[in-house]
Design a protein that fits this description.
five-stranded mixed β-sheet, signal, Pept_M16_N, disordered C terminus, Peptidase_M16
């Protein structure tokens, strides 16, 4: 699963992704507000007759080209009892296709000097990317087209079993044997009860992974991995006319079908606090994790949540760090994040206790800090620091054409969520509109004590003998 503010990490609205044109329709970036021209990313967007959307952006800083494909499907689109399919299929895409031998996709690209070579899955999309020397662009496009059009020819029960075991091992490492992993999963399930499609983990459950068969995998591919449900971004040092011809050569004849609809789901509303006290057998220190449901990515309040998260836990001067780590010496670490997603986002505060400190004490202190924000908001200086942080992160990511968070990914992400690849200036402008009063109102209306999930993940000894009045305050 991925999380990225700088490259825009979740879908925008329930109504789904922007429709693709059925005939080539070149499109230029929209005009920017005065003074923001420097943030513009030059690009051209068009669609092939089979529905494949193409984004081209020339960047001649280095003789390399990033090839980045987004399939508009993620864990959100899975069927009940088949969680983890989007992520499992990400693995299957590297197993070989009709004209590419088993397990040589990565090796072949690496032999050409490719870098930033990987794939990722989130609730809302799956992407595959590589950066190659400019003279090897054609090979990269051929490899991507072969698995887009002809992966089914190479899927076997043996390949499925191999990747199933790889994914199951990932789940063991990231959830079942990871510190706080199982407890965090239970908290997430409490935030998004069934049948909400966010209920399951992107990596899936052991039960559903074991139930997957070859027919399930093939059906998933046929429905979601068509050209009409994909966007190809090419960014870097390339000839536009020659590249368009290559795209047509390798992708133009691939069969397609109508783009499947994104399911619409009503937002979850917590009407009472949910308190979970879980025994933590891996980590040695207690964890307090508090989570609220917040506005979806790019909706009103999303940027405000980002700013507040920065003010609470980024840097030694941040409010929670200063109070819990420096002044009262109650915590080993603190973090606050806004996990922006397409259907609904999640605002989290995580605190790892120091030895001898209970999670109930941490909760009291966190609530005291949040009460201050609810009553007074935060300062203009805190907002300015947060803006600077997001500006810097975003612009730093744009220095690279490829990789996770590079320019190709940024164009893909904005296009996926708002239908406009060149949305950097508009995105950063959201943070300029955040005010102390807006943060105060957000804390009052959204971060309510009566509408949250509170997780106490405590090692066994701490559960059996909670501290008494001798706890440090």
């Amino acid at each position: 699963m991925f999380r990225m503010k700088a490259l825009v990490a979740a879908a925008l609205v329930f109504s789904g992704l922007p429709a693709l044109a059925q005939t080539p329709t070149p499109q230029e970036a929209k005009p920017l507000e005065p003074g923001r021209e420097a943030l513009a990313i030059s690009y051209e967007k068009y669609a092939l007759p089979n529905g494949l959307e193409v984004i081209l952006s020339v960047d001649r800083k280095l003789p390399v080209v990033a090839v980045n494909i987004w399939y508009h499907v993620g864990a959100y689109h899975e069927q009940p009892g088949r969680t983890g399919f989007a992520h499992l299929f990400e693995h299957m895409m590297f197993q070989g296709s009709r004209n590419v031998a088993d397990d040589v996709h990565i090796a072949r690209l690496e032999q050409l000097g490719a870098t930033d070579l990987n794939g990722t899955t989130s609730f809302d999309r799956t992407n595959y990317f590589e950066t190659v020397p400019s003279n090897h662009l054609e090979t990269a496009l051929w490899l991507e087209s072969d698995r887009m059009g002809f992966l089914l020819d190479a899927i076997t029960p043996e390949k499925l079993e191999t990747q199933r075991e790889v994914v199951k091992n990932e789940r063991r490492e990231s959830i079942e044997t990871a510190p706080y992993g199982a407890a965090r999963e239970k908290a997430w399930h409490a935030l998004f009860p069934l049948p909400h499609p966010y209920h399951g983990d992107v990596i899936g459950s052991m039960k559903d992974l074991n139930a997957a068969n070859v027919d399930d995998v093939k059906d998933f591919f046929r429905k979601w991995y068509a050209p009409s449900n994909a966007t190809l971004a090419i960014v870097g040092d390339f000839d536009v006319a020659k590249t368009k011809a290559l795209v047509e050569k390798y992708f133009g004849t691939l069969p397609s079908h109508a783009r499947p609809q994104r399911p619409e789901v009503a937002p979850v509303n917590l009407t009472a606090p949910v308190v979970l006290r879980e025994e933590e057998r891996v980590a040695r220190l207690p964890l307090l994790s508090i989570q609220w449901l917040t506005p979806a990515y790019l909706e009103e309040g999303d940027a405000t949540a980002d700013v507040l998260a920065t003010a609470l836990s980024t840097g030694k001067a941040s409010r929670l760090y200063r109070r819990l780590v420096l002044d009262k010496e109650l915590a080993q670490s603190v973090s606050a994040t806004q996990q922006s997603q397409g259907a609904q986002s999640v605002f989290s505060v995580d605190v790892v206790a120091r030895p001898g400190v209970s999670t109930d004490t941490l909760l009291h202190e966190v609530d005291a800090v949040l009460d201050e924000v609810r009553q007074q908001g935060i300062t203009p200086e805190e907002i300015a620091r947060a803006r600077t942080r997001y500006d810097t992160r975003t612009l730093a990511g744009l220095q690279s054409v490829g990789g996770f968070g590079g320019k190709a990914d940024v164009l893909q992400s904005y296009n996926h969520f708002v239908g406009e690849p060149n949305y950097v200036a508009q995105d950063l402008a959201r943070y300029e509109s955040v005010t102390p009063e807006a943060v105060k109102q957000f804390a009052q209306d959204t971060l309510r004590p009566g509408a949250r999930v509170i997780l106490h993940a405590v090692p066994p000894a701490r559960r059996q003998a909670p501290l008494d009045s001798k706890e440090r305050h």
